Amino acid sequence: MNKTYAAAMTAASIAAMSSLAAPTIYAAKPAGTTSTLHGGDRELQTLAFNGTLSTMTGADFLRWTDGSLTNNSGTYSWNALVPRDVNGANVYTGNPDRSDSSTPLPAEAAKKGSLNDVFGSFNGYKNMSYIIDGEDNGAWCMDLLYAPGQLMSADASSSTVELSVLERGGNSDFNVYGIRADGSLTSALFVSRSQGGKIGWSLNTLEIDGAQDVYGFGISLDSTWKNLKGIRIEAKNGFNGPDIVAVGSAVPADRIVPAPGAACLLGLGLVATGRRRRVA
């Protein structure tokens, strides 16, 4: 989506920051980041960050095997088909979208897509040309879960990147939570748009009319983020609608995981969608 950087942080962002955890966040960098285009479908090989030697590979973006998306029209499971905004529509606060030149989604004709389409395996890799598109004004929430029997615990090192998030535009904020084995959540980590870095390519998707740079955020969690069966990404009103391209994770350990907890809630119920600002 095309969005304008706010002159000052919104009241919602400031309020969110006041009680949030503070792991170390590193900006991604193009040097050391590599990818390959297969037609219009992009495969990432390596992702590097400023300030740490910790890196991620394409395999780190294929950790997810289940999850859910909650937007202003309902909650959708991993394989459920989510209605999509295409050709400039602005109906759904968070929904699957794809690059203009990428392989069409399986339910393209029905204008729908799933979390599995966006974050699952595509010809053996995570297709970086598929995204979850957010709106300028509107809340949405997404849970991504590891395979059954797997949990991830952060180490005590501030230089180890346990999570990475790729966002199209670099002009939106988002919250990150850890989902514990019992279904409870960690404190939210507020990630500011200013903490990311360009990774060397751009995305122009069906919902907008121009390309935008993709930004990367590397997150070194502190050691209180333990026994996580998944990750939650949250967009709030005032966060300027993050467009999530991918979420990478360090290798989780093999352990027994209890049944999943409840899907995320938006708090205010169905949220009105803001009007998208278009690329000139």
Description:
- It is a single chain.
- The chain is mainly beta.
- Helix content is 4%, strand content 38%.
- The chain contains two helices and 19 strands.
- Strands 1, 2, 3, 12, 15, 16 and 18 form a seven-stranded antiparallel sheet that branches. A six-stranded antiparallel sheet has the order 5-4-10-17-13-14, with helices on one face.
- A hairpin with a 2-residue loop joins strand 1 and strand 2 (41-49).
- The longest helix has 7 residues, at 11-17.
- The radius of gyration is 17 Å and the shape is globular.
- Residues 2-19 and 268-280 have low confidence and may be disordered.
Summary tags:
7-stranded antiparallel β-sheet, 6-stranded antiparallel β-sheet, mainly beta, 280 residues, 19 strands, disordered C terminus
